[in-house]
User: Fold Oxidoreductase family protein from Micromonospora taraxaci.
Amino acid sequence: MSPRADGRVRYAVVGTGARAEMFVRALVLDHADTTELVAFADVNQARMDAHNRWLAELGHRPVPTYPAGDFAAMLDAERVDVVLVTSVDVTHDEYVVAALRAGRQVVTEKPMTVDVPRCRRILDTVTETGGRVTVAFNYRYNPLHEQVRRLLAEGAVGEIGSVHFEWLLDVRHGADYFRRWHRDKASSGGLMVHKASHHFDLVNWWLAATPVEVYAAGRLFFYGEDGRRHGYARDYDRAYGSPAAADDPFALRLDAHPRLRELYLDAEAEDGYQRDRNVFAPGVSIEDDMAVLARYSTGATMTYHLTAYAPWEGYRVMVNGSRGRLELEVTENDFVDRGTAGAVKGAALHGVEAPPEGGGATLTVRPFWQPPRQIPVERRSRHGHGGADARMTGVLFGGQPDPLERAATADDGALALLTGLAANRSFETGRPVRVADLLTPR
Assistant:
C-alpha cells in the first residue's frame, strides 16, 4: 500500500478484544511515523470504548467507532487503507472478503479462518480481486524459530526425513481456552486450528513443504463435563460472583485484572459474552489431547502432539535428516503455582508473558560421527511471544527487511489451516485424510 500525502498508511481494527491491544500499541507508539490508526469496529461498543480510553492513556486521540454491521461504510468514511482483523476466528472471512472487495489490504490474526468453505471463499476473493492478505503468524518471527529456519536451509541435518513436535499447554494457559469462546469448535475450529495452526505453519515454513495426508486422533480428556471424573470440578457455571470458584485454581478472576474487567466483565450487558466460564461446565466441544501423523510433499513425515492440561509449559522439536538431527527444547515455565493458576497466562492480556518460572531454551545439532553442537540462542524477551510480536509488526507496519520471508500470505494461511482441518476430519472418521480432498491452495 502506497502511503498517503502525509506519508502514513491508514489502519482500522475490527475486533477489539484482548489481542487487538498489541496491534494498536504498535500502530500508535512504535510505527506512528508510517501508520495512522483511524477507526475501530466491533459488535460491542463497550470494548471499543475501553480501547479508546487506553489510547488516551498513551496520549493518542480517540478514534471513531463503528458497529460491526457498518464495517463497509467505515472503510469509505475513514478512508481506510489496511484492515486489521482481530475478531472471533469464525468471523474473519466476513471482514477479509469485504475489505478485499472494497480494494483494501488485510492483515488478519491467525488462524485465517476455521473451516474449508470459509478458506475457499477467502482464496477465491484474493484471486478475483488481486488483493493481498497477510496472516499474522508471529511464531515465524521468534528468534529461535528463525535460527531453526536458517540451520535447516543451510543443510545442518541434510535432507529432512521426519519431524517430531510436542507442544504442552499448562493448566493455567491451556485451561484458558476452555473458559472462553474458543471452547466452541464452531467458533474456533478447536485447538487443531486456533492453536496448532501456528505450529503447522512453522513446519511448512521450516521444511519448505506442503501437507499431503493427515491421520489424527483426538479427544476431550481432561476438561469439560466428563472431566469432572478427575476430581477437580467445582459446582458453578462462571467464576464471577460464585463462592464455589473462590479458591478454584481453574477459575479466572476477571475482577483481579483491570484490563480484562473493562473488556469483558463491564461489556457483558451488551452481548452477554462471559469470559470466565467453568472449564468443567457443559458446552465444551473442542479437544484437549491430540495426536497427528502428517506426510508432506517432500516425503518427510511429522508426528505432533498437543496437550492442553500439562503441569509445565513448553515445546520440543526434533528434526531428523540425512546428516544428523536438530533438537529444540523450550521451557516457558516449569510448573504452575496453585496460588496464581487462576491468572491468565502471564498477565491480563494475550501475548504479555510472565517472568520466567524455570524457563529456558536449548538448540542442539547432532551431526553423524561428531560430538553434539550447542547453538547459542538469543536471550528471549518475556513480552509479546518472546519478542516475536515486535519483530512482526516491524515488518508489517515498519517496512523492515524480511529476507526469511516471514510475512505469511493467504496461501500460507490456508496451508497451515489444512493440516488442522484434515486432523479434525480424521478425528471424526478415524481414517487418513488427503489434504487435496479438502482444498487445493492456488
Q: What stands out?
A: The first strand starts at residue 9 and ends at 14. The first helix runs from residue 20 to 30.
